[in-house]
Amino acid sequence: ANPGTTLALTGTLAAGDVLVLCNTAFGGSGDVGLPLRTQYCDVVNTFIDHNGDDAFRLEKGATVLDQFGTFGSDPGTGWTIGTTANATVDRTLVRLPTVTAGTTDWTAGAQQWTILAVDTFTNLGSHSMTCQP
Questions:
Q1: What count of Cα atoms within 13 Å lies in the side-chain half-sphere of residue 68?
Q2: Which residues pair with 63 in a beta bridge?
Q3: Which of 23, 38, 76, 115 lies 20 to 30 Å from 91 when distance is taken between CA atoms?
Q4: Quick one: three-class SS letters along 62-84?
């Protein structure tokens, strides 16, 4: 994404629901992703375009609810997840089921992901979470 680019979202997610953001190129001509885009993508936009070294954050008004990466920093090729350098390049990341809230601390956030092979669509449109009673 271009630095400083924003995408305004509206509405409310139901408990247990997920929001899937997709680039318009996902599921293009001849791409196996087209049925996935039709079935799972809630927002399809050219804004959702990154190469692994971008930072993202979810805000409500002026409050940052969740953050991926560190704004104002360039990690080079990609962000480190756990001990895996450049883990955000050509891979699929899924939030760990033990994460029950967003974080604005990337040091903590960088430990909250499972790294899967590129184009792993198994979890698209869902997220398992281990809730505490």
A1: 18
A2: 60
A3: 38
A4: CEEEEEECCCCCCCCCCCCECCE
**Which phi and psi (to 5°) does residue 37 adopt?**
-60, -45
Considering Cα of 6, then 11, then 13, then 19, what sign does the dihedral take? negative
Quick one: 46 exposed, middle or buried, by C-beta within 10 A (0-12, 13-18, 19+)? Answer: exposed
According to DSSP H, which parts of 13-89 are helical?
Answer: 34-40
Map residue 119 onto helix, strand or coil.
Answer: coil
Q: Are 43 and 19 in contact (CB under 8 A)?
A: yes
- The percentage of the chain sitting over the pLDDT mark of 70, rounded to a whole number, equals 89
Exposure b/e, 18-35, CB count within 10 A at least 16 = b: eebebbeebbeeeeebee
DSSP code at position 112: S
Q: Find the farthest-apart pair of alpha carbons in the chain and give their distance in angstroms, rounded.
A: 46
